[in-house]
Specification:
By secondary structure, this protein is an alpha/beta fold. The chain is built from 21 helices and 24 strands. The chain starts with 10 loop residues before the first helix and ends with a strand.
């Protein structure tokens, strides 16, 4: 038996043996995402490119969970890990089925280029909805949970291989990403942009990291010595493989102009630690060798890491010895997975306004309800991007129709207006007049506005037909604002409920002023419309929280191209938010009671609180812990999330929640990028929101506050 087939040996020994048997030509054939078969060694072809942002994408039917930003709004890392486990189960089921049919093409492999743990620092960024929001702590915890769910818990084999992307300091503008140099200070790097990647590497042992398109502080990310060597491998001890973003290495010479030729770009990326190229520049590695820019040892170092990943996935072992290899195609999109999908959609919904207890609606008191707006019956608004195809889609309109089908309530529908102006709908006010007519004739009106991936998304993606992918402002595109205004005018005193389906913050000032209720539904997945309907008609009490800030104006933000965190996100913004990070209402009221004073024990600080559900419905509450310290010498965050727990609390009952902090949780990052623990006063808060005045005004509740001295 060949050593590389000997399952009793380590993956390192086996990979080294396999590598030693390969010719240079064979080695080079493995360096792009389309790795060729080497039949004499029993190596099948393999395509490294696969996606699983919120379900297995682009490979047929799969369970399509809410978009990542919606999953973040759950504030539930334990449930997110279960979702990722479902996704990896479906990935394994598809891989087995496709391989048995001889299909090893794109989107059929076990290397998933998810999660996206970039920081959503500016609401204009088109890809922000792929992330877990604006906070480095929340992103870290959710990133770790998602990676663990994808990769499984077997001590020897990976269930699938996760990939933390895009490393690093990547959050727009999309239109400039191929040439842009993101300048970030050491403080911002280590306080904001790097923590989630570090957690994925150190805690979750993520198997892969993807570089970004842009430069960071002058170096192209997919060929950055600072990022890939100094930080990722040397400082953090990363042992997996690095993949380039797709065609990003081509940007080295075409747009960044840090190199002059494709062989030079290939050499820069390879020597600095990029192991596999999504793109075609590594087809020039032979030329780079001929020109003396790289050695065969450089190729070996990269390919060794790639072979180990394939070994960990069990691709060279007997299927009966790989615990995940027998997962059948019938494990895809099961009844249980669909049930979890609906639960995720429910958990992701955020109730932003509920004047005078408008929601939930009582179907017995309504004869007619109007459902209007371009996203009311839109499947696109359920999907987000990087999605698989669902077995069934339930739009908001369909969800409300289904929910009320056995009642006497008539559900009327009008498009109202198209999502954004196009050449086929130049004269569309007749749709608005249809909607206003229904508003006058109905007892309640649900207006569904927002965006979809055609309006906010990835630059130059084939689906994006509206600009670069970024938003120019926070306004609803097309005639949506006019539609809402006219419906509100027509409705009079009757309740207008806005359901905003978007992956980012919008201008909701008018809705906050005039709508009876506002729901942020994100891109809620294939069962999202059912979840929205059930929430409107009291099947469950909402508990989602905002993972991003909804600003009052765009003018208060720095320039989009400015990567300095000053003035950005809840941690450094200067003004009050319209709807703050961490905010979300419920149909219940939850009270908090401190059970102990903060005391240190073995460098740990434990805080216990009682949470009581004072409402009439069983529900869930998201308890959040923040720290506040005003440094005399450093720019200090307004507050910093340092803990969260989503807990179930039955009506009238009380649960106990415990948070544990270490001194590292109280550290700040100085201007040199180093963590320091300053002496002085620290405030710790625990409650259902962050400790800002706007959250307290919106919720009518104050958080618990503790003071400690260090």
């Amino acid at each position: 038996m060949e050593k590389y087939l000997d399952e009793s040996l380590s993956f390192e020994e086996r990979s080294a043996d396999l590598l030693s048997k390969m010719t240079l030509e064979e080695k080079l054939s493995q360096m792009t995402y389309q790795s060729k078969a080497i039949e004499r060694l029993g190596i099948p072809e393999y395509n490294w490119w696969n996606e699983a942002l919120h379900g297995v994408a682009r490979a047929g039917t799969a369970t399509m969970f809410p978009q990542a930003i919606g999953l973040a709004a759950m504030f539930d890392d334990e449930f997110l890990q279960k979702i990722a486990d479902v996704i990896s189960t479906e990935g394994r089921a598809k891989y087995k089925a496709y391989c048995e049919e001889g299909d090893r093409t794109i989107y059929k492999g076990l290397t998933f280029w998810s999660p996206n743990v970039n920081i959503f620092r500016d609401p204009r960024w088109g890809r922000g909805h792929e992330t877990y929001g604006e906070d480095p702590y929340l992103t870290s915890r959710l990133g770790v949970a998602f990676v663990k769910g994808l990769q499984g818990d077997d001590p020897k084999y990976l269930k699938t291989a996760a990939c933390a992307k895009h490393f690093a300091v990547h959050s727009g503008p999309e239109g400039l990403r191929h040439e842009f140099d993101a300048q970030a200070s050491p403080k911002d790097m280590w306080e904001t942009y790097l923590p989630a990647f570090e957690a994925c590497v150190k805690e979750a042992k993520v198997e892969a990291v993807m570089g970004a398109y842009n430069r960071t502080n002058g170096e192209p990310c997919c060929g950055s010595k600072t990022l890939l060597q100094d930080i990722l491998r040397e400082k953090w001890g990363f042992e997996g493989h690095v993949v380039s973003d797709c065609w990003a290495i081509m940007d080295f010479h075409n747009h960044h102009h840090v190199t002059a030729t494709a062989p030079e770009s290939a050499a820069l990326a390879l020597k600095n630690g990029c192991d596999v190229n999504c793109g075609s520049v590594y087809l020039h590695l032979q030329a780079a060798l001929d020109e003396g820019r790289i050695t065969e040892e450089d190729v070996d170092k990269a390919l060794f890491r790639l072979l180990i990943t394939r070994m960990k996935l069990g691709m060279f072992d007997k299927p009966e010895n790989v615990p995940y290899a027998a997962i059948p195609v019938t494990a895809n999109n099961t009844k249980e997975h669909r049930k979890m999908n609906l639960e995720a959609a429910r958990k992701s919904l955020v109730l932003l306004k509920n004047a005078n207890g408008t929601l939930p609606l009582d179907a017995k008191k309504i004869k007619q309800i109007a459902v209007v707006g371009p996203n009311a019956d839109s499947r696109e608004a359920l999907k987000g991007n990087y999605y698989g195809e669902a077995d069934r889609y339930t739009t908001v309109l369909e969800g409300i129709q289904d929910y009320l089908k056995d009642t006497d309530v008539n559900v009327a529908y009008s498009l109202g207006c198209v999502l954004f102006q196009d050449r086929y709908h130049q004269q569309e006010d007749q749709f608005i007049y249809e909607a206003t007519g229904l508003a006058k004739a109905s007892d309640a009106i649900v207006v569904c506005l927002g965006l979809d991936e055609r309006v906010e998304g990835e630059e130059n993606h084939k689906s994006n037909s509206y600009g670069s992918g970024d938003k120019g402002d926070l306004q609803f595109p097309g005639k949506q604002k006019k539609l809402l205004e006219k419906v509100l005018d027509a409705a009079g005193d009757k309740p207008v409920i806005l359901v905003n389906l978007s992956g980012s913050a919008m201008d909701l000032n008018m809705a906050e002023e005039r709508c009876a209720a506002v729901i942020q539904a994100w891109y809620p997945g294939s069962r999202g419309g059912q979840a929205v309907a059930e929430m409107i008609f009291v099947e469950f009490a909402p508990a989602g929280r905002l993972p991003i800030t909804f600003y009052k104006t765009l003018e208060e933000l720095p320039e989009f191209t400015d990567y300095n965190m000053t003035g950005r996100t809840y941690r450094y913004m200067k003004n009050d938010a319209l709807y703050p990070f961490g905010y979300g209402l419920s149909y219940n009221q939850y009270s908090y009671e401190a059970l102990n004073a903060p005391e240190w024990n073995d460098d740990q600080l434990t805080l216990k609180v009682k949470i009581t559900n004072e409402g009439t419905m069983d529900g869930e509450e998201v308890a959040q812990l923040y720290t506040i310290h005003k440094s005399p010498v450093l720019e200090s965050p307004n507050c910093s999330l340092r803990g969260f727990k989503r807990v179930a609390v039955k009506a009238g009952e009380t649960v106990e929640v415990q948070f544990t902090l270490t001194k590292e949780d109280l550290m700040m990052v100085n201007n040199d990028g180093e963590k320091v623990l300053e002496s002085g006063e620290y405030t710790i808060t625990i409650g259902g929101s962050q400790p800002d005045g706007r959250s307290e005004a919106l919720t009518g509740q104050k958080v618990l506050r503790y003071t400690i001295e260090l």
